[in-house]
Amino acid sequence: MVETGKFIEEAVAEIRDEVGDEHAIIALSGGVDSSVAAALAYKAIGDQLTPVYVDTGLMRKGETAQIRETFAYMSSLEVVEAEDRFLDALSGVTDPEEKRAVIGEQFIREFEREAKETDADYLVQGTIYPDRIESEGGIKSHHNVGGLPDVVDFEGIVEPVRDLYKDEVRDVARALGLEDIVAERMPFPGPGLAVRVVGEVTREKAQVVREACHVVEEELEEYDPWQAFAAVVGKGTGVKGDNRVHGWIVAVRSVESRDGMTARAQELDWETLQRIQSRITGQNENVARVVYDVTHKPPATIEYE
Ligand code: XMP
Fold first, then answer.
1. What's the pLDDT score for residue 141?
2. What pLDDT score does 240 carry?
3. Which of 42, 60, 67, 205 has its CA 20 to 30 A from that of 29?
4. Which ligand 1 atom is the nearest neighbour of the CA of 226?
C-alpha cells in the first residue's frame, strides 16, 4: 500500500522538477486516474497546467457540471463543448471498432488544437501501472498510452501515477480531497456511451441511454456493483395509450468483477428491477421495454460493443 502523504509530496516535487517554468497540458476524462494526475500536477505547477476536458456528448448525466465543480479551483481549466462534432463524426457509423476509431480520432483533433493554443511543452497523463503492463504486453491498446504524443511534439511526458494500482490511486484521490464521486466511481469506458448504443449513435439514443444509465446507477448503488448501466439495444413494439408504438429496447446490466476481465451478472430483486423499469419507461415515452441482462463474461462482454 502506498503511503499517500509521502507519495503526494514526492510526486509534486518530481513534476515541479521536470516541468520547471514550462507549460503542461492534461486531458481530463472524469475518471479517477486523470483526475489524480491533474490534481498532483496542479499542486506542483498551478496555472502552468491546462487541464482540458472534452465534452463529447457521450458522457454521463451531469458529468460536465461535476467536472466544472470538482476542478473549479483550477482557474486554467478548459471545457471543450464538442458534442456536435462528435455526433456528426459518428453519423452513419455502425461498426463497434470503427466507432472507437472515430471517437479516438476526434478526441485527438480536439486535444491537439488545445495543446497548440496553449503552447504546451509537456503532456501529463494518468497512466497507471496496469495500463503500462497491458500496453507493453500488447494485450490491448489503451487510449491514454500513445496516440497523443505522436501527434503533438511534446518535450516530455509526465506520468505521476505510473507505478500505482487502481486502489492506490483511489487512496491518493481521497488524500487529495477529491470528492467521493470521483474517487469511488465505477469504471466508465473511454468511448463513453457510444459503446452502450448498439449500432449508429444518434442524439436521441445518446439522450435515452444517458438518462437510463443515471437511473440504473442511482437504483443499484446499494448493490455496490463493479459496473451497472443501461444500453439501447434495438427497437421493439410497445403500447402507449391505445396505440402500438415502435420504441427503444433498453437493456440493464449490473455486474460484479475484480478486474473487468471476467464478470458475473448480479442477482437483483424483483422490486428493484421493476422500479428501474418503471422509471426508465416513465421518463421517456419512446422506450417500449426494459430487459435485464443475466449473461456473465464470458460469454458476453461487459459493454454492448
Ligand atoms: P468489456 O466490454 O470488454 O469491458 O468486457 C471490460 C472493461 O473495459 C471497459 N471498456 C473500455 N474502456 N475503452 C476503455 O477505456 C474502451 O474502448 C472500452 N471498452 C470496454 C468496460 O467499461 C469494462 O470496464
1. 47
2. 84
3. 205
4. 24
Alpha-carbon distance 289 to 303, whole Å?
19
Residues of the chain under the 70 pLDDT cut:
135-151
Q: What is the model's pLDDT at position 159?
A: 96
Burial letters 123-156, b for 16+ CB under 10 A, else e: bbbbbbeebeeebeeeeeebbbbeebeeebebee
Among 145, 77, 150, which residue's Cα sits nearest to residue 114? 77
Ligand 1 centroid to 303 CA: how many Å? 6
Q: Is 75 helix (H, G, I), strand (E, B) or coil?
A: coil
The whole-number pLDDT of residue 14 equals 97
239 φ, ψ (degrees, to nearest 5)? -120, 130
pLDDT at 150: 61
Binding residues for ATP: 29-35
What pTM, to 2 d.p., does this model score? 0.90
Per-residue confidence (pLDDT) for residue 130, from 0 to 100: 86
Identify the bridge partners of residue 28 per DSSP, sorted by sequence position: 53
Rounded to the nearest 10°, the torsion over CA 78, 83, 85, 88 is 170
State which of 262, 302, 304, 305 you would mutate to test the pocket of ligand 1, scoring each by most atoms of that ligand within 8 A of its C-beta: 302
| Beta carbons within 10 angstroms of residue 272's beta carbon | 16
The CATH code for residues 4-183 is 3.40.50.620
Q: What is the pLDDT of residue 277?
A: 98
**Spatial CA neighbour of 260 closest among 189, 164, 183:** 189
Domain residue ranges of the chain, discontinuous segments joined by +? 4-183, 202-292
Question: 41-51: buried (b, 16+ CB within 10 Å) or exposed (e) per residue?
Answer: bbbbbeebbbb
Which residue has the CA at smallest separation from atom 9 of ligand 1?
189
Which of 1.10.10.10, 2.120.10.30, 1.10.3430.10, 3.30.300.10 is the CATH number of 202-292?
Answer: 3.30.300.10
Query: How far is residue 188's CA from residue 210's CA, in Å, rounded to a whole number?
Result: 12
